[in-house]
Design brief:
heterodimer; A: Helix Hairpins; Heat Shock Protein 90; 3 domains; 4-stranded antiparallel sheet; 8 helices; about 55% helix; about 15% strand; B: about 220 residues; alpha/beta; 5-stranded parallel sheet; about 40% helix
Chain lengths: ~425, ~220
Amino acid sequence: MKLLNKTVQYYFLLSVVLLLVAVPVFYFVLKRIVIANVDARLIETKTQLIPRLQVMEVQPGNKPPLLDNDITLEKSGKPGAKDSLYTSDKGTYRLLTSYLVINQNTYRLQIKSSLANHQALITSIIILQVLLLSLLLAGLLMINRSLARQVWKPFYNTLRKLRAYKVDHAEPLQLPHSEVNEFEELNTAVEQLAERSRKSYVAQKEFAENASHEMRTPLAIFQGKLELLMQTMPLTEEQATLITDMASASQRMARLNKGLILLTRIQNGQFPETEDVSVKKMTLHLLEQYQQQMDQKELTLEQHWEEDLHITANPTLVEVLLSNLLVNAIRHNLKGGQIIVKLANGTFTVQNTGQLYELNTNRLFQRFSKSSADAESMGLGLEIVKKVCDLYEFEISYAYEHPLHSFRVRMKQ
Amino acid sequence: MKILIIEDEQALSKSIATYLAAENYTCEVAADCKTAMDKIETFEYDCILLDISLPDGNGLQVLQALKQDHKTEGVIIISARDSIDDRINGLQLGADDYLTKPFHLSELSARIAAVIRRRRFSGSSILDVGGLVLDTQARTVKVNNQTVDLTRKEYDLLLYLITNRNRVISKHAIAEHLSGDGEGLFDNYDFIYAHMKNLKKKLLQAGWEDQIKAVYGMGYKMDVP
């Protein structure tokens, strides 16, 4: 539920309750006033009438000439009763009954006054009132809503900007100025938060980049010294094995370093040049390069080219993307396994046999999440793939379709 | 042959000098721009190895000075930076090659040899080593005046071995060299054995006396007296 509706809801509730209570109360009060008024008039009529009646000759059987429809005078047996005021059974008349003595006879005087007119008046007033109150209520609601929408506008603006904000974008988060203190404070706090996270992101990125670059010279020294060590005489087999292991490790470090730098470079948007790249051509070229590796593992390669896809992208990055997928398919394959490369409907698919269970899809595209026992896999490949996909808004997905691991990249832009 | 190493990391320049000494190169070292400039003005070199980040300035200054003086030395940039821009910058300024740290000394040696071969005005593209005659321009190999038909990779491998003769080349360096720019994506070195086997077979068939030997699974060495 929107905050806007939430506040309005209470106003609305209060207004409805007030309306429901106020209208009957108003009705009864009004009715009371009218009756009191009518009673006063009845009593006044009576006091005016009595002196005139007392001097009047009353002939039994004849209707007294003074009296009209609303006033009746009858002989009554019980004298001295008090005056009484009451409403007729149907509620259409107000009656005053009084007893008076004329010529030693007790008469009952009854004066009635119609309430129908008053009733109609009350009803009209109530209807008008209900109408007015309802209109007022509706108007209030509408004003409140539009006002609230107006007032909350900066909040929604902030929310929208915040949603669109990405920490790896170069420009800092800038929120519009708000007249309302609360929103201004919120904006400032959010801006500060965004700036802090952006700064720490940049710092982290710079660290990764600098560290990777700084690592290169010592790595070069290490590698150089190892090569010199290989030249030393005499060299025993034991020493040679140790040196080879070290050389392999340094090779891995060098590769890791390259991967890290490539990642930061992609994140920094340092591959702005784009050109028309044929996915099919590039894949075929890569497959040719990897032929030897595939032969070595006795892999069978199946290719399905239903179309050739041309994309506008940086050729280096496309090559990185494709080669990482293909190399993974070869590296994590079983001896005598199978690789299927497919391009159809704008989707590039690589399928390969491998370990017989699904990879952990949650961590698949994160750095250093190794997926197999192959100690040499550097765990950066798929993250690089993901970053390239993100950059060009390709969609990458993984599925395990027994016994094949499938990576699909939807490239149609 | 004289080589100037402009590199501020002493440990690295010393390694390079030691490795290259086996090839009868005379190496001099300059650890900063100023020393490098002085040396360039005074002496002539066959090849200059240039690090870009130096303590007192950018190595590209040295390159610019060289080109302004119309010096003909071959220049190989050795840098920790490897972005395409850095490469293009260096090559546009007139560098002959660009090698990113970390590199294999054997690779560096091969690149130096290539630069010197290209720079040599005598036009001699013939390498005559240990009974093998290589024409580096035509990319042909002759044994006993007989042309041996090699694949591209086999030829590259042979040239690599020759330029690094009398030294052990690690299998990692060979793998990286052979797979070119898509270097070492695999940790499988079996393909080197296959190439090596074929190469040796072809050379032996042509009557060459085998001088290439494997060194304990560490790498290969070509002995040429």
